[in-house]
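Protocol step 4 of 6: record predicted structures for both targets in the notebook before any analysis. Target 1:
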Amino acid sequence: IKPLPDKSEKVRVPLRIPIRRLRWALQDGISDDPLPKLLNGQLIVRPLEVLLQAESPVLIVELPGVDVAKVDMTLLLLNMEQKVLQEQTLTTPGRGRNRWRFELARFADTLRHNSSPLLRFDLRLQGLPDAPGETQIPLMRLTQSLMVENITVTPIIQGEQVQVKINWTSARPLQNRFVRFWPLWQPWQAPIYRPIPDDARGEFIVPVDPAQPPLQPIKYRLELGISDPWSPPVRPRRPTFGTQNTLDVALVPPEHRLQILEQESKTHGKTFARTLEYAIIQQELNHQSAYQDALQWCYQHLDRATIPQMLTLVECIKKTGGAYAGRTLKALRLKLFAVQRIKKLLRAYQQEKISHRQFQAYLANMPDAKLLPVKTAILLLDVPDVQIDLPVIQRLIQH
């Protein structure tokens, strides 16, 4: 202790105060970052294969500011049904003060021979101050990839009832699988989802479910996957052509589907949906004249379309290319931003009839702001998007 010559002088002394905050990190030899940088309180997500290939994976848990002699920590390995498959208890820290080390190699056999597609490491704590009883915290989630080969689909069509039999080969059966059907001839439609029973081994006949939308005699992109109940629900995205575990399959030949659409149009009249599907099939068959004629009809009858169907029409016109696409796309974007259609867009978004992704895709087609009707510009002021607001405000100032 040394007296200061000037009592008004400020003295700053560094203090290290431990904050009672649980942090953890995985040391698997992949990251070169030092441990203090790895430690955080966020859920770790890893593919199971990566963890099994690590030499000596260790899960580090740190909890400063507590009496470690009074705290018991147990690492639990759980499957999707929340069943404890294995556990490891540590009553005192391994190395370092207030720091526990869980050797994950001890769980390797259980991890390797479990059929659950999703596994989780949870930490159970006992003896925490101000927290009587047990506290359980998820630390790490492990995912297993569904790897299937030789996917085949056999249509079973009886009258208006459509079923399919799916066959595949897989080295390892997993639980919680699903099949999703993405309609390629009707891309504005939502995919059809069906769970696959856990006891299905290489074959599954998709049942008819009256409570779900039925399969139609059209072309689908079939996707096999695993559902994750521990992740927040999100709208799935259609996988691109050739993605692992997918197969494009037409349940009827395209020429036969065209005949069905033509007959339905003669019997019940043309609809936007039938004509747009007709155009998509004609484009697939490389019948450009019939394709452009159908697109022109859709362009002229845009008021009959839903928001997703309008977006599909935009994508179809883009695919045509050339001068026709340029002229038609420019005119279509002006029609999309007419006052009555922007009202329809905002209403559909507010009522959650379209996703945020579809909402943004529609707005991405905004023409030059100078060409916007003033009433449309006023409506767009309520859209929380800087890329929209700025040109809209400039348009109103100009007006």
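Target 2:
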Amino acid sequence: MVIISNSAFLQSFLTKQTIAFFARHYDIELTVDNVYVKLPNTIVLNDICMMDSIGDTLIVSQEISANISAIKIWDNQLYLDKILINEPLINVCVDTNGVANYEYILNKFTSEDTDTT
């Protein structure tokens, strides 16, 4: 398992799948240099850049790591319980209408189910 998880092929595959997932599900422009699995339960993304809705840089980080709490293969779901962003550069801008550039991203991650009953 260690040999497979550290293979260049798997890392390249994970990188492409990560970028495609965010583009498809969240309409987010994201670049990632590589993704690797750090056994037993950590996924690490290196050299990350996320753009805002008008194409300006929103977040840049050398490394983002996340602890995997559960994987549901049949549902294509990955659950994370802790995310660490190392040395982030976060570019926050507010337009003349009072809308911050990060709101676009937050709205993508907000659940559509707002029922609190």
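Step 5 preliminary note on target 2. Helices lie at 2-5, 8-26, 103-109. The chain has a mean pLDDT of 82.
Proceed to step 6 after PI sign-off.
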